[in-house]
Amino acid sequence: MNTQKLIIALVVLAAAGLGLMTYTQDRAVDESAAEPASDGQEAAVTQVPEGPVARITEEELADGFVPLIGEWENGGFNKHGWNHYGPGYFTLDHEAGILTAHGGMGLLWHSELYGDFVLRLEFDTSVPESNSGIFLRVPNVPVSDDYIYHSFEIQIHDTAPEAIHQTGAVYDAEAPSTGAVQHTGGVFDAEAPARHRKHPPGQWHDMEISFVGDLITVILNGEKVIDWHAEPRGKVEDFAEQGFIGLQNHDWDTAVYFRNIRVKKLD
Hints:
The chain is mainly beta.
């Protein structure tokens, strides 16, 4: 065998070895949800909510929405296009299309850039204390935690003491509006003090987020809770005209679930 052929053979063997290593690592990530967390961390909650599979509707497809959790032609969901940065990880139930956040703090981000858009998704939590968020217009591929200062986060955290850190808030920047107190007999009193909306665990909750120019709108379970012209505030120093969409994984001892994520570009 001459030198050129020997070099080609070595390159092929190296590529095959790399492919086997990558396959083994991918299997390890998929199977790690069933294993306890290491280094003394508590194992993440892995009980995926039951219920019918949720999918994008024909009307949404006709309106320009596209699903961000893909489906194979022969069945089963996949998370192609999604990447993860930081501690923890996300697992995907390939039959139900449900993403589960484990550990943290990390970010699962989608590789397509979005400027003006409408994002729809459903979320559920394992306990009221579950903590997560949806990041908007992450300006660059995350290589550190610096993205939190340059992109807004729509919060999921029902038990946060401050309104600007509660579910539906633009984290650390704009608190969600609240509903009126419901009195005996189911009668609402518009003059009564406001209450914090609750989003009980074990139920799927609808969230729609639009980001158009500098205007952020959030609709939770059919109620508009944010309608805000964004400006640098709180932890956010500035924000970009376009960027990535991201899902946060935050805790080792609680879980947040996402499904039926779909987006419509407006620019």
